[in-house]
């Protein structure tokens, strides 16, 4: 059961972790743009999909 849970955990977290690391720079730039946009208008909060 422990092995199955660990496999399930790694199966769902490792790809996400790798994706985050690979796209970290692009994501940070996108977040900065979103924050700058949110300062001017709060529409970003309503239109951006929550993940």
UniProtKB/TrEMBL annotation:
<protein>
    <submittedName>
        <fullName>Uncharacterized protein</fullName>
    </submittedName>
</protein>
